[in-house]
Amino acid sequence: TYLPCNTPEPLRAYREDELINLRGYGSGMLKEWDRVYDYALYNDLGSPEEGRPVLGGSQEFPYPRRGRTGRRPNKKDPNIESRLLLLNLNIYVPRDERFSQVKFSEFVCSSFNSLGQVLIPEIGAVFNKTINEFDNLQDIHKLYKEENNLPDSRPLRNTRECLPWQSFKELLHVSGGRPLKFPKPDIIKNDETAWKTDEEFGREMIAGVNPVIIRRLEEFPPASKLDPKVYGNQNSSMTKEQIEKNMNGLTVEEAIAGNKLFILDYHDVLIPYLRKINKTKYTRAYASRTVLLLQDNGTLKPLAIELSREQDDVNVYDPISQVFTPSEHGIENSKWQLAKAYVAVNDSGYHQLISHWLNTHAAIEPFVIATNRQLSVLHPIYKLLQPHFRDTMNINALARHTLINAGGILETTVFPARYSMEMSAVIYKNWNFTEQALPEDLLKRGVAVKDPNHRHGLRLLIEDYPFAVDGLEIWSAIKDWVTDYCSIHYETDDMIQGDSELQSWWTELREEGHGDLKDKPWWPKMQTKDDLIQTCTIIIWVASALHAAVNFGQYPYAGFLPNRPAVSRRFMPDTQEHAELEKDFHLFFLKTITAQFQTLLGVALIEILSQHSTEEIYLGQRDTSEWPKDEEKEAFARFSTKLVTIENEITERNKDQRLRNRNGPVKMPYTLLYPNTSDDSKKGGLTGSGIPNSITI
């Protein structure tokens, strides 16, 4: 490890030449043997006929940059990059970023397994009286294999061990259970109906797969920030009378003053696109607001859901809004259950597009590119960050090829459909690097306040907030490790300012990698050691823990799609449809949410995304035990030890019955931020726990 100024003289020319080679020449088609890192716009998502805009390079649709492939432009539009055939997975990424053979075999074979599980129900549906529809909830339960009916596993284990290649092991699916059936998701393992409860609905906002959106409500009724000249009056139509009847004797004013009211709000982000979205063939969606009360037992109690949609008359901007409140009987109960489903649709789409794809995958890729272009392999910050970039460029390239492309799996399975990526670009306008730090995020959302007398200097207003409680421990451990490491190499702020590679890295990252936001005032200046420590901590947090929190719980929570539907196909029933609703609520519910094929495709997708590789390297682990300096080795050992301590603390918290949000009515412990540092088994699979070093699947 050498800073540029300390590099031995004989090595300096080689150090500089290697960086020049890694940057390439900015043109020409790149081949699989190349090691070139360069930037490109998201102009590779579809053909001109498919009508998707180029993302990045404009104020209308800004976006992080991706890795350049150099593929030829489309013949009909030189601004669009030509695409490979769908089954051609040989997409250029720098060869150091490519999957290993084992990893690629696991990915392909798990994909075949998951997609193969779509075929049997679809073939059966051809002979069903209701093609592409589930007739009842039992039809969905039949998709899953029953764990208590598994055959004796010893001969199966022996067979598996005799197979020479991981790919054949995966393809033959001999780990137990019936082939061509999905594993039973954790959400229904212990109780098949608890997912329907209001308590579980609220719990998943702080301990589910998207626990990063809920915020404290500071005014009532909730107000919109949309321009009324453009969108009309978008303020909430909720009234005190609608929510106070369920507030355990509190008034709205008392609850706001006591930090007891919270909101899950998708209204403003969806309203600008809702008319377009609802013109697509299969989607009938709302923009939702959900208000919740923090109760004395620590749980969140849903008080009201407001569903808003566009007027039929395009010249009228004020929305059509309905407010639904909890009810236990009759039509009102049925509508309340449907209202929660419409909220889940909003949450599922936003989670997949923003919390998961944009804020982790897409946001980190420019850091991967800039680090390899500007920081030598000898640079200490390169050595610090490089493990947290493993496989990310390869995964993102595959995602652009089959997942987020025009007509791809994401457009097929989430409610914004063809407007998915375009909408994510509009939301990226408000992305802020410094707010990706967990403490800053919690403060911004008002779910924590600064308090020097509390651990980490923050007091959580929802004390039993599993993501935040576990996350702050992980954040603190990462920051301590980064602080120790950076202090070994930088004694003064002058050394930061005088590090030519570091300054070039940070300049390029801002001006090229996230160039559409380069003029934002919130970018760290990279002039002090504190700037460097905070920046590196954010990068590692996003690439490891944040991604783990929003990715690996997808199948455990959403593998049973009624719990987290991703599409709604009809609006809330009017009085003419009440008879149909009363006759068979579950059938009406299933005809409202995602259709059968989209359900199966969505479940297959998240099964693939939620699996850990057998090659996984978890936070606090390394693929080599070598360190250039003893001080680095000792600091990393302290980091690993701290993470193992956190594992034990998480296990104890999950056993504490006073912390009702740790397990919830579904009896599903929160383990998405369990580091797994102590696990060297290399088992992989759907574990629902473990923080890999990098954004990986």
TrEMBL record:
Species of provenance: Olea europaea subsp. europaea
Cofactor(s) it depends on: Fe cation
Function: Plant lipoxygenase may be involved in a number of diverse aspects of plant physiology including growth and development, pest resistance, and senescence or responses to wounding.
Keyword Lipid biosynthesis: yes
The protein's assembly and partners: Monomer.
Domain of life: Eukaryota
Pfam families with a match to the protein in the record: Lipoxygenase
Similarity section: Belongs to the lipoxygenase family.
Renumbered residue ranges of the record's region Disordered: 53-77
Domain Lipoxygenase: 1-697
Protein name (record): Lipoxygenase
Pathway(s) where this gene product acts: Lipid metabolism; oxylipin biosynthesis
Composition bias, Basic residues: 65-74
